[in-house]
Structure to design on (244 residues):
């Protein structure tokens, strides 16, 4: 089991007339070794009555061409959205959805390849894909106070879920904003054989400012990128305060 798949698992309202606001932001993914810009993330999130309903992400290469798309629907679970990622280069797909029998994960390695799927236990602590960002925002006050926590994260690449732990690293400013950084790693001894993920949030607003670790986006060889993704304040527009 590789950290590249585990970490990668670390991005429309039901009734259109209820949508009151939308947030748009950009993330810039750089190779951790060379500093080269690998891709740009364009996020658009739709809110209904200040509650996040849907989230769409487009991934653009340095030439501005979209090569991966992802959609998420939070209408059935606050932290485990229905989601689907599609790599337009080779047809790779992964995703998941809430069902009566649990949370269904699926993966298709390329266009025309057989699709594999499995179900994991669905509960209030299950975190899926970008639902992790929402989980951290919702629990930020207690994470700041207790400086640690645990949750279960789905790993679509392995069609399973694992328990992770999160702990406070530091409270150093970033982009001129008050910020707090956390380290995320498996809660089991698996962490001795895998890399961690570091995430930084604006401690006053709960906005994600930086992600450092393995990406959910693959390179031309099919390996997950090792990245630093920055979400600078100037890349965010009109974010409403979310009501959980």
């Amino acid at each position: 089991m590789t950290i590249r798949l585990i970490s990668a698992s670390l991005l429309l309202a039901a009734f259109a007339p209820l949508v009151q606001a939308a947030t748009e932001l950009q993330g810039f993914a750089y190779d951790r070794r060379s500093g080269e810009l690998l891709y740009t993330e364009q996020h658009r999130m739709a809110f209904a009555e200040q509650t996040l309903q849907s989230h769409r992400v487009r991934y653009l290469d340095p030439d501005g061409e979209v090569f991966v798309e992802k959609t998420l629907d939070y209408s059935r679970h606050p932290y485990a959205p229905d989601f689907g990622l599609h790599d337009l280069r080779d047809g790779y797909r992964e995703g998941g959805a809430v069902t009566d029998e649990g949370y269904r994960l699926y993966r298709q390695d390329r266009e025309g390849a057989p699709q594999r799927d499995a179900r994991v236990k669905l509960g209030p602590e299950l975190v899926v894909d970008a639902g992790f960002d929402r989980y951290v925002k919702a629990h930020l006050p207690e994470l700041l106070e207790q400086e640690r926590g645990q949750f279960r994260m789905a790993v679509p690449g392995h069609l399973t879920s694992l328990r992770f732990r999160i702990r406070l690293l530091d409270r150093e400013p970033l982009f001129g904003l008050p910020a707090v950084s956390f380290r995320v790693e498996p809660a089991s001894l698996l962490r001795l054989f895998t890399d961690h993920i570091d995430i930084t949030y604006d401690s006053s607003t709960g906005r994600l400012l930086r992600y450092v670790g393995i990406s959910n986006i693959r390179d031309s060889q099919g390996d997950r990128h090792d990245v630093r993704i920055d979400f600078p304040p100037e890349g965010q527009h009109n974010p409403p305060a979310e009501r959980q």
About this structure: The chain has a mean pLDDT of 89.
